[in-house]
Description:
The complex is a heterodimer.
Chain A: E1 7-17, E2 22-33, E3 38-42, H1 49-57, E4 64-73, E5 76-77, H2 83-89, E6 94-97, H3 111-123, H4 127-140, H5 146-149, H6 159-171, E7 177-181, H7 189-206, E8 209-214, H8 217-223, E9 226-231, E10 234-240, H9 241-246, H10 251-258, H11 302-306, E11 312-313, E12 319-320
Parallel strand pairs in A: 3-8, 3-9, 6-7, 7-8
Antiparallel strand pairs in A: 1-2, 1-4, 4-5, 9-10, 10-12, 11-12
Helix pairs in contact in A: 3-4, 3-6, 4-6, 6-7
Chain B: H1 2-29, H2 46-56, H3 62-74, H4 88-123, H5 128-142, H6 145-159, H7 173-203, H8 206-213, H9 218-255, H10 261-270, H11 274-302
Helix pairs in contact in B: 1-3, 1-11, 4-5, 4-7, 4-9, 4-11, 5-7, 6-7, 7-9, 8-9, 9-10, 9-11, 10-11
Amino acid sequence: MSAPPLLEVENLRIDLLGDDRRHAAVEGVSFRIGRGETFGLVGESGCGKSITALSIMGLLRHPLAIGGGAIRLEGQEIQSLPPGQIRRLRGSRIAMIFQEPMTALNPLSPVGRQIAEMFVLHQGAGWSEAGDRAVEALRQVRVPSPERRVKDYPHQLSGGMRQRVMIAIALACGPDLLVADEPTTALDVTVQAEIVDLMRELCAANGTAILMISHDLGLVANICRRVAVMYAGRVVEEQAADAIFRQPQHPYTQGLVASLPLLGGRAAHGRRRLAEIAGTVPAISAYPAGCRFNPRCDRATDVCRVEDPAATPLGDGGLVRCHHHG
Amino acid sequence: MPLLILRRLGNTVPTIVAVVLVIFTLFSVIPGSFTSAGDDGRVLDAQVAERMRKELGLDDPLHVRFGSYVANLVQGDLGTSFRTREPVTKVIAQRLWPSLKLTIAAMGFAILVGVPLGFIAALRPGSLIDMASMVVAISGLSLPKFWLGLMLMYLFALTLGWLPSFGYGDGGLRHLILPAVALGVSPMALLARTTRAGVLDVLNADFVRTARSKGMSEYRVVRWHVVRNALVLVLTTIGLQFGSLMGQAVVVEKLFSWPGLGSLLVDSVFQRDIPTVQGSILVIVLFFLAINTLVDIAYVIIDPRIRYG
Lengths: 326, 309
Ligand SMILES: Nc1ncnc2c1ncn2[C@@H]1O[C@H](COP(=O)(O)OP(=O)(O)OP(=O)(O)O)[C@@H](O)[C@H]1O
Ligand code: SF4
Ligand SMILES: [Mg+2]
C-alpha cells in the first residue's frame, strides 16, 4: 500500500445555510496533493475556490459549513477534528495566504510582531527571540533592510511588500502545505511574477506543497504540476498542467484556454481576438438543472439540461465532467 | 509624534476663537438683554439702567465691546456676577471641581460597565448575555435622566438608606455615587452598543481571519488583534459622550442639588445673571473641546495610520 497523499479532498460538499434551506455552494469536489507538489485550482469569481481553501484550513464560518465528504492530511481526517486540534495544525502544518494583502494584516500592529506571533504560538519562543527570527523571516522573503521594516505598520508597506510579509508569516513554521488564495490578484503585474517566483522558490527549498488558487489559468498552468478547473461549485476538469493546454476536455476549460492571450503556439499566429466565455457564473441558489454550465455552453444538448454529467476518468488520474467532452 | 500632537493642539486655537465669538455675539443680539426686566416683571429705573449701561460699556460699538471682552478673557476675567457681585471666574472656580468630579465619575462608570458589556455581548452574539446586555443598553438610552435619578434616589437613599439622597456633603464618594450613576447610564448604554457593533465589525475583518489561520486560540485572537482595533472604533463615542457630559449634567445636578456648573447655569439663567451664564457656557464648551483634543491625541498614539496633514 502506498503512503497516503499529503492532502486528500474527497467528495467535499460545502453548504450555504439559509433561513429555511441549505444550498450546496461546493459539491463533489475531490483532489489530491502530494508532498512538495504544486496543485492549481482555477475558476471564475464566485465558483467556490476561496471557500474550498477555507474549508481545508477549518476556517469556514456561518453561514458556510462543511456538509459532507472528507479532508485528509496524510490520511488523517481533519475536518472532524475538535477545534483545539485543528487549530494546532493551522500555521504549523497548513498555512494560508489570502487574496487581499491590503486588509489581511492587522493595521495596528507592526509587521514584525505579526510574524513573531508564529514563533511564539507554535514553537514556544519568547517575544525577543521571536522578534529576532521575524527579522530573519523578512530577510528570507527579500524585504530590504528587514531590521527596520519589522517596526513598520502595514500601511507603510506597498501591496507587494505586504504580500511578502504574508508569505513570511505563512512559511514561518515550515508548513507542509501552503494554501495560496489568489496571492497576486490584487498586485501590479510587475510585482505578480516576483511574488509567485518567491513563493515557488521558498516552498521548493522547504519541500512545502502549494495549493495555488487563481482565476488565471495561464499563471497556474505555468507553475503547477496538476490543475483542477472549477465551475459553479464543482470540479469540471482535472488534468496535468500541460495536458490541460494541449487537450482541454471540458467546453469551459476550452473557453479558458482559448481566452489566454499569446501563449505558446498561438503566439505565432499573432494577437488573435480573445475568445471570451459569454455570461456569468450563476448564484448558488440558482444553479441550473442538469449541467451547471449548460446556459453558457455552445455544445449543450437536451441531455445537458436534465442530467448532471458524472465525472469521467481521464488517462492520467484526471477527470472531466461533461456529456460531450473531448 | 510630538510634532503631530503640537499641531493638533494648534488646530484648536481657531475653534476656541470661534466659540468665544459665538458666545459673545449670542448675548449681544438676543432680545431681553443685560438691563431688561427680571423674572418678577419689574422694570429697572431708567436712571439705574442708564448707569448700568455706562458701567458695562453697552453703548460702545460691538467690535469695541468684543475687543474688551476678549482682552478681559485673556487675563482670566470673565466679568462680575450681577447677582453676587463676585468675579465670575471665582464663582465658576467653586463649581468646577464638583462638576469635573461628577462628569469623570459618570464617564468612568459608563466606560467600566458599558465597554465590557458590549464586548461580552459581541463575543457571544445571540446568547442570553447578549440579549440581556442589549436590553440594559436600550432601556438605559430611553429612560429620562430625571426619572432614573428619582428612582435611584427612592431605592438607594429612601428605601434602603444606603446612600445620601442629595447634596454634595463633604465631597466624598458616598454623595457622588447616585448622581454619577444617573448621569452615566445613558453614555454607558450608548457605549455598550457601539462597543458591541465595533467588536462584531472587527471580528469580521480580514486580519482576524489571518489571525485565526495562524492557529491562535480565540482568546488570543481577541487579545492580540481585536481589542485595540475595537477600541479605536469606540474612542470617538467615548470622546463625544465625555465632552458633552458636563452640559448634560444640568438635570442631574438640579435633581441631586449638586453644586456643579450645570446648576449654576440654570440658576443664572433664571436670575438674568448674564456674565455668569456666558462664563459657564464658555467653560462647558471648552471642556468639550479639551476632551475631544485629548481623544484625537489618543488616536495619534494608538493608531499609526493617523497623520495630521
Ligand atoms: N460568507 C458568505 N455568505 C454567503 N455566501 C458566501 C459567503 N462566502 C462566500 N459565499 C458564496 O459562495 C460562493 C463561492 O465563493 P468564493 O469566495 O469561494 O468564490 P471564489 O471562487 O473564491 O471567487 P473569487 O475569485 O471572487 O474570490 C459565492 O457564490 C459566494 O457568493
Ligand atoms: S455537459 Fe453539456 S452543457 Fe455541460 S459542459 Fe458538457 S456539453 Fe456543455
Ligand atoms: Mg476567492
